[in-house]
Amino acid sequence: MEHLDQLKEAAREQVAHLLPNDIFAEFDQLNSRLLIAVTLLQRGMKELAYQLFETIAANGPDENENRHFAYVRSLAEMAEMDAEQGDFAEAEEKMATALAQFPSSMEYMMSRTHQEVYLCYYRFRLGKREQAYRELEAIVQREADRFQSHELEHGRNLVGPGLCYAVHQLALFHAEEGEWEKAVDTFRPMETYAMSVDRSQWDQALKLAEEGQFEEAFHQMEESVTYHAG
Question: What InterPro entries would the database entry show (predicted)?
């Protein structure tokens, strides 16, 4: 309890001026603490934010929807910070737990697809390449099927962000392994999925690919598309 009080005071000192007046009086409520932690994170105070997320995650799953969201969100945020520090084993464990506990009702607040892609990335970094490819390819196929079930503009708005992120990451896996032609081929469907495409840049990328300059073509393709990454 003393540790929690110390965290509360440290957080109050840093972000009280950015938050509602009564939020620190509700510090024992997980959702209030989550808002404080997210605010700290947004201000770049990652170590203190991480410690607050830890105190939330320590409460475990909850039947109350709001407290459960705080639990899952905290695990996901800590996983991302673990990955930033190169601790992909911890990141994998936390994100896998978050996804196992991820309720469908959370989709409008936090993209499950993006979290799934993060998990594949962590596994790739851990050397679990076959698993990472297999799982990411399955995500791409699932989301592509969802995309096709919508009219084009609705698909781009509702499914496109997560699908584009998954396609991009899969292409980057190929690029990282020097398989530039595969990276280009994987990236091509983005022409349909992305919110906007710079046509002249895209056409230039296709021309480079025709000439066998696949690495240059891939980077040009990346430059030519716009989508919401998170």
Answer: TPR-like_helical_dom_sf
